[in-house]
Amino acid sequence: MSLVALHTQELGPADAGRYLDMLARSLRAARLNNSFPDRRRVDGTIAALQRAFDHKIYDQLYLDARTGLPNMASFTRVVTDQQMAEGALSRLDDRQELERRRQEAAVFERMADKHDYLTWLKSQELAPVDLHRVLLRRHDPGSGTASFRIELTKLDGSGLYMHLTIELTQVASVWRKRVVDLDQDGESAAASQAFHTLIYRCAALDAETLFIRLHGIEGVTVERVQRGVIGPVLFRLPGEDGQLHTTLEVEGVLGHAWQTWLAGPGAHARGPELLATFASDSAAGDIREEKSNDPLSPLLSAVIEERERARYRQMRERYPFRVFKDRKFVATRGLHGLVKAIGDAAGTRNIVYDLR
Amino acid sequence: MSSDGKINLDVLSRQVSYSGEGISVKTLEADIHQERTVQDNKVGELKTLRERNVEIQTAMADELKKLRKFSDYLNGTATKDGFWAGFKEILSYIPGLRSLSLSQRSIEELLKQQYQVSARRVKEAAEYADVLKKSELDLYKELDRINEKIVEMAKNEQVALDYVLELRQLQEELKQAELAAESGSVEVRDIQAQQDKVYAKLAEHSTNVQLYGSAEERYASLKENTRKLLETIRNLAQDIQQYTTAASIKLDMASAQIQAIGRAADASVVMLEMKRSLDVMTESMNVTTQFVSDTQIFFRTNLDTLIQELDTFDDTTTKVLDENLARSREIEEQRIQAAIAKAMSKGGDAPAPAPAQ
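ok -> structure tokens follow
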């Protein structure tokens, strides 16, 4: 198995079905809370892709080779299918007519399948490629103080699927530029273009860096920055055609461990194996202990260069918050050893859900 | 003529069976009209599809051109006029961006939106390939129907022709019999009556020969047009299929590139913003430093003068103050003396006031 484009690998319909089934099960097993991208929507996208393959709408599933997750092409396919479903169905013949002519030619079979797929798809909730929301939490018109929760779900350029939550309070004044605008009735809010862009660009940064970056904005007090990240997902899938499909471009510590496993225990594995990781990362004032329980992402204070340490300490003293990082895993039995090895090396104790 | 020399009139009473529902000028026109309507509908459908296809293909080509530019940048093949010129050209493709300042929107986000627009265009076009394929199949069925009609018309024409020939033969025989019979006899009258019947049948079936022959030709001509239409639709469907397949593959392959270049562009913008911010800071520092330096030089150069000016100012002020004080004292003294004088004049024995100094 090799790359078909930049950071892109593909699976044929049968292998795609098995992969998507395991991915969906791993997401359910992970028990994701609301700091992560909405699982129901991710489930919706996975189910839509499965249905698309069942109905022979697509021939390949494209995955990001760095994260083992469906890539932007795959996410976009079902989203655009859904956007077009209503119009496409109005142009297709009646379903019964298509069924009646199914045996007549391949095109009628294809159109009947497409009819079924689009009819089902149009009522589904799908994972967005990007989704930005601003929610008003409190508003005191007297003092001009308003608290917001800003949420960004993003299929990041790194190939990871993430959800970012920022809780902040803004004190409005005439002379100061506001990051969030309230409408006239004071009930709904929208981020200013500049603030929206700032958050979008910085979404890949960790919660600590983002907290400091946003807290520096005049008139803004950041209370919490929380990130939930789906991925990377490592899989080893013996293909229908006898080929072995594996996540190809896993980076960093995990990538090294993955290669070691593939060459060692993985070489003797028989069935499909999958390891999905789910990272959470928070920076807030009410966190009791600053700690990273994420074996793949230590605290900034632990890795910062010595000459920067004093400046870093000074910066942290200005902002009263703590950081907590964690990562949980969902793994098939064959990959539990890999998780343990990573945790032991980093000194972390992580939750590992078994994927059967 | 039968073996006993009698004329066989069975041919007159025989029922000629044509296949189909019978023919008349009216029914033939109605049938042909119906076939034409099918064709006209398909032509109309094709015309709409063509127009819509041109629209979609143009839009799609445009969208893909934009994506192509982006991926060319990643490949490093589009830097003829320098990176910055090319970068600005790319940004000019993105709707709404031209009017915005560079840093207001995330390029990664805009590119992803552009990618979705392109993906939708490709799907719209691909959908028409299926619609055309279905149209093509409908026309194949229509062609089969027309072919059946042509064969049917040809067979019926042949039946009519055969019957007309038989009637012609009978007509000849009756003519010979009439010549052989006695003029004005009952036999002659009977023969003439048969001749009229033959003539009526001949007229009827000669018309059928003409109608079936004409129908066959008209159906053949319809068939030719239907075949051309079918070929056109098939070609269009194939072209669309090829183009959308290629475009779809391109999109699938370009998604990671789009994200990569989006991130790179955002990083570039962040770098530019950082540079701009540092430039502003440097400029502020320079201006402030120059101000401090200039002020310092000014003081160093002008300190003596400034001090002298300060001294002069002090002297003048002192002088003014002294004068003011002397005058004040004078006024006060006069007021005191006046008060004493008044008191003295009222008391009588009070000591005389001292003279003013």
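Chain B is about 85% helix and 0% strand.
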